[in-house]
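Morning!

This is the sequence you dropped in the shared folder:
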Amino acid sequence: MPVMAPIGKVTLDAPFFQAGLAGYSDAAMRLVARQHGCPYAITEAMLDHFLVNGGKGLAAAQIMTGDRPIAGQLMGSHPTEIAHGAKILVELGYDVVDINLACPVKKIRKKCRGGHLLSQPDEAIAILDAVRQAVGDDRPCTVKLRRGSNDGDRAAANFHRIFEGVIELGYAAATVHGRTVEQKYIGPSRWPFLRALVERYGGTPRFAIFGSGDIWSARDIFRMIAETGVDGVSVARGCIGNPWIFAQARALMAGDQAGADRPPTIAQQRQVLLDHFHLAVRVHGQRRASLSMRKFGIKFSYHHPNAEAVKARFIAVKSLDDWHDVVESFYVKPQAAAPANHAQHVAV
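The structure's back. Tokens below.
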């Protein structure tokens, strides 16, 4: 089984990691993933001006014990501000600084952030350059991109111009999602695009190419590596409510085929839900944790034998008590076997 290429000075013992996921990949989710074998994780995208302005944005960027190695992901549209944000991430102790050129959501289009910068190669390269200069050789820099703003020829040319800029500026790695910004999450991720990208740029010294898109199982991780030749795989939506994907991937690495396909037991699901909840309370406080755990509960429900009923109950959750009621109703602790009633077996 392959071992992931290093990210600058950061070396990992497995060729997969947890992606930055807006609204999900907070410290609680990352720590649960690490407990199940995830070797590396990326934060949600942080807006540069929230870091620069301090307050809640800066407080949320603090790194918890055990949450390493970690990349802080930045998103912005002005080179000066995003460079300032990158310096703050270095000061906070992030191991890697990651730039988001992939987010497809409509609300950031006017600000030309995230994936919308793929249609503006000059601005994108200026941002990448500013961050690289701000960070210097102190930390490796990486970038997350989609395969283009759309499927047009101009979008393809813009992508390659930006990608070549990433390499020329000395970035340590690029993660590429096989959908366009225009697609958002509709339609398949084009893995053949990743294969062609590796064939074109894969020989670059000290530069890794990671793949993303349509990773729903541990076997998908290694299938992407085999089919595309990427140096590692970013696991995104497939790990929401599914930290077991990392344990299953490690089982595959160890040659344990049965372990790779073994679903979590009810007891394991219960324990992870409670662990995730307690970590969320530490990160956000009880009120915010109860809100965030509703959406996580919905995702976790897919593993339950009675998935539709569990999902419906999590959707109906309106309070912390409601959430715990769902856990106690559907994720019951295994009961010790009752002692046999030997009197029933006495011959009459």
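Headline: Confidence is low (pLDDT under 50) at residues 335-348.

More detail when I'm at my desk.
O.
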